[in-house]
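Feature request disguised as a bug: please show the residue count (415) next to Heat-shock protein in the output. Example input:
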Amino acid sequence: MAAAGLDFGTSNTTLGVVSGGRADMVRLEGDEETLPSATFYHQDGSISVGRAAIAAYVGGEHGRLMRALKSVLGSALMEETTLVGRSRVKFRDVLKRYLAEVKKRGEAAAGAPLTHLVHGRPVHFVDGNAEADRLAETTLHAIARDLGFREVSFQYEPIAASLDYEQQLSREELALIADIGGGTSDFSIVRLGPERAKKAERASDVLANDGVRIGGTDFDRHLSLGRVMPLLGFRSKLARGEIDVPSVYYHDLATWSAINRLYESRVHRELVDLEKRAAAPRLIQRLMRVVDDERGHTLAIEVEAAKIAVAEQGAVAVPFDWLERGLSTHIDHAELVRHTGELAGRIGARVDACLAAAGVAASDIDAVFLTGGSTRLEHVRAAILAAVPEARVVTGNVFGSVGTGLAVEAARRYG
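Example output, currently without the count:
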C-alpha cells in the first residue's frame, strides 16, 4: 500500500507517490512527469489520455477529444452528457476514466496499490458560489473513493506549492505563493522556514488564502474571440438590419470544455440557416467547415500555441491553411494584452485581497513564489508583482511545484 499526492489540473496533471516515507514524482507519460488533462475516445470505445490523446486527434483519427476536464467541476456541464460515437457519456465518467488511468500509472511506478490520497484543489472551484464549490470537491472525493482510495483528503494548491518552495529555504520568511494555472489563479500567504517545516500542524502558519476562477484557458478564450473568431463571422451582421449573428457558437468554440457541444446534429441545421441570413456568408461557411469537420480543438490548440509563442517570442503569425488557403492572423504582445489585460488585472487584484485577509502590508512579504503555466505571461507576472514590489521573486517548477508539494503533504499525513 502507498500514498499519493495528485495535482489534477485544468491543463496538466501530475502525481507524486510516497513509499518508505519518501515522495517521488511519477513519470506519467514516457519520460514526462506531466500528463495533459485530455482524453480521446476512439471509435471502438477505447480511450487514450494525455499527449497520446492529442496526437490521435491532430493525426486525423475519427473520435472525440476532450480537454480542460477539470473546468466542468462545479458547473452545469457536470450534469450534462456528451455524444461519443452513438452513445452519450456523462462528464463524471469522463473524469473517472482519465483519473483511473493516472492511478494505474502511479501504481505501476510505485509497485503497490495506491490507497491514500492528498488531492489538490483550487481555493475556489467556482467564484462566489459556496454550494457549487462544495459540490466540486465532493465529486472529486467520490471519484477517488470509486477508484479505490481508502483515505482521501484535500489541500489547497498554493499551500502545496509553498511546501515545495519551503524545501529550499535556509531561514524563515513570509511568502506570497501565486499559482496561476489553466483554470484558476490561487494565492496563499504563508510563514515558511526550516524549523516550521518540522511542525506536525501548520494551520497557524497559513495567514490567508484567496483565488479567482481565471486561468490559462480564459486567456485562450479571450484571445480566440478577439483574433480568430472574427475570421469565422463573430460580430459580423445579419443581412437585414444591424443585428449581429448569434455569438453562442463562437463562445462555445473558444471554450475548451464547450467545443463538443457544437457537434450535435441540430447545430449543423442552425448554421445552414444562418449562412442564408448572414451579410457575410463566406465567414459562416468557414465556421460550418470547422464544425462539420469537428476541428474545433484544432483551433483551440493553435490559439494556445500562439499565446505561448507570444509569451516567449513577442509575436507570431498563425496560419489556418487547413481551413482556407492563405487564411491567417498575426498576434503580438500588444494584441495579447489588449484582449486579455482585463483578466490579468483581476488576477492582480486578488493579491491585494489576500494581503488584506492576512492583515499584512505588501512590504511585509519577503518573497513571491510563482508557479503555474500562466505565470509565463509577462502581463500576468507584472500584475502580481506590482502588488508586492519589494518582494524577492522566485520562479518555481511551472508545472511541478504543486504536485511536489502534494506529495510532501501525503508523506506527512500518511507516510
